[in-house]
Sequence to fold (297 residues):
Amino acid sequence: MRRRSSRGSSPEQVVYGSPLTHIPCVQLGGDGDRSNVEDRRGLVTGGRLGIGGILLLGVLSIVFRQNFFALVGDDGATTQAQGPQADERRQAEAPLEKVAVATFNDAQKVWARQIRAWRDAKLVLFWDQVQSGCGGAGAEMGPFYCPGDQRVYIDLGFYRELSRRFGAPGDFAQAYVIAHEVGHHLQNLLGISDKVQRAMQQEPGRRNALSVRLELQADCFAGAWGHSAARRQLLDPGDVEEGLAAAAAVGDDRLQQASGRRVSPESFTHGSAQDRTRWFRTGLESGSLDACDTFAQ
Fold:
């Protein structure tokens, strides 16, 4: 998913002659580099407390035996939630975090070899709600990329939804989600996103159709990264099937059916399960950006 921003980017030139396989081998979940990771989970922004707020925090501190005043911090300060519940939640998410961070890092290394003047995006981990360069967002909207601040945002709880609610478990299903959002960053740097935005403004009636093509291309880019990962033997047997299942699970028709609504192709913004699977597979099989021209189809 890509969130819109009024800020644009300049197109960069693609270097198609550089092979996707010349990237150091890193098993998914084994990359501990967090230089491009912002952990905002449990952040609390402080401010001046009134008498009511002070009394409330006092009661909560007594009941839960935790210093809630420490979470608020000084005026305007932002502090990170501590305590048993926050620690347990972070520990429970540790395996999910490893896959997300490793995928994010590896996908960026792959595309940095393909795109001149590549600029790394940032990965933001959050809980429940977050403020981005594209506005506020809740975890219920799922992972997204904001071109305004060039960041990918994810509440790792989405992975549990992907597995339990949509029936798409597994590390590579999780990796697909991140690789898709990095695909939006690639579109941003190539100037594709700006072109689509202008076309939407010129032809409002095609907004949904253009949005679908943009999302399907990000699926294809995710598949092309998967091709590179497979060539470098980062994938296990069954991983490809996990990725294809994840692509199908987030198809607009599947989501509409799951919510009890009538399937309405004209309202699609991301593409059907069949189309998302097809374009993800196209990238997986070709490993080529050239093969991902969804706008020519």
